[in-house]
Amino acid sequence: GAVDEMTETLIRRRQSLLGPAYRLFYERPIHMVRGEGPWLFDASGERYLDAYNNVVSVGHCHPHIVDAIARQAAVLNTHTRYLGDSILDYAERILATMPDALGNIMFTCTGSEANDLALRVARHCTDRKGVIVTQLAYHGVTQAVSEVSPSLGFGGERPPHVRTIAAPDTYRLEGDIAELLAAQTRQAVAELEAAGYGVAALMCDTIFSSDGVFTTRGLLSGAAAAVQAAGGLYIADEVQAGFGRTGENMWGFARHGVTPDIVTMGKPMGNGHPVAAAIMRPELLAQFGERARYFNTFGGNTVSCAAAAATLDVIEQEGLPANADKVGAYFRQRLQTLMTRHDCIGDVRGAGLFLGLELVSARDGKIPNATLASRVVNGMRDKRILISTTGIHGNVLKIRPPLIWQQEHVDMFVDSLDSLLKDLAR
Ligand code: PMP
């Protein structure tokens, strides 16, 4: 399908000004001009149902957050070298959602910086360098975290201090997957020790977003315990899974039953305002702080703290984890019903409002169908519903709507997908 002239002009301007490293969504890119709740609006006024953007987790342009940002910006915006109470009030609130052992928080601007800091602390405290991650993990953009991001090709080739364990593919792998990951972790620890690096940490996205969205409880329990038993740290990357996304609990790591040493978070923390953090055991920070200093100019600034606090207000006041559970369960059930009509749906999985839908050539044999997945993403876009794909085979629909979704949004999504799959099968 062609795009209009205005869009064409924007695409050309963008390429000439921003260069080639950025990617656009969809064969027919969209020029967005406004957002409201679960909706986005393009330049011609068309309305899109956002089923993908997990940053604006409590809805686009939520008035309570917009208001908090605007008010604070009009009064003071400064950094962590002055005393302030809003950062401490927020710290108390967020730490209260964590296991007791995790008693300190440090603020950054992005998830990448939070993971970068987590790795620095882990390496400092263990005096080791090795890191274990899952097969297609993504942990961010800095040099250090791109090296532990196989989905970026490790920012080059796999560095010698990095080892991977399998993506916990609950659809294709047989047997006890948690035990498989534990065994692979023990093997990786042995290799890192033999190579002279030792193991500093296992870093894991607790819902395996880029590995393909795997939501079975306990998948990480053995691996996390194994790395801790070897004297390494378990770093739970909650950038995707955190803040009620997975439903009944605020944090994805709760599904795996092991308390992390460090928890990192970002994306939905300020509902679109850049604020992120690393939460950790105070003993670790005491050790790190003895020698290292850390000042992040914008991390934890006054406006960011206002945005983060307002986001937490909305999550609590609107009961969004419970809503994610309720609407997510309904969503999965409706998608599972679609399986009876469409043989190309191999698997539907999810926790709260983070769903993965596996598209296959035929259900027998579970052969991944990335071409179909890409057609579905673009076809849904043309029906003005926004999603994308993920996973090792690129065939998993990644569905992460705002946590404010209601049944009517699910119905709109499922009915559109149903009719699209019918058309594509023709
Ligand atoms: N970890 C995970 C699991 C992520 O999904 C992302 C962002 N996609 C990051 C870390 C990096 O966060 P940021 O883009 O804010 O640096």
Automatic annotation (TrEMBL):
InterPro entries: Aminotrans_3, Aminotrans_3_PPA_site, PyrdxlP-dep_Trfase, PyrdxlP-dep_Trfase_major, PyrdxlP-dep_Trfase_small. Its cofactor is pyridoxal 5'-phosphate. It comes from the Bacteria. Gene3D superfamilies: Aspartate Aminotransferase, domain 1, Type I PLP-dependent aspartate aminotransferase-like (Major domain). Keywords: Aminotransferase, Pyridoxal phosphate, Transferase. GO terms for molecular function: pyridoxal phosphate binding; transaminase activity. Pfam families: Aminotran_3. Belongs to the class-III pyridoxal-phosphate-dependent aminotransferase family. This is Aspartate aminotransferase family protein.
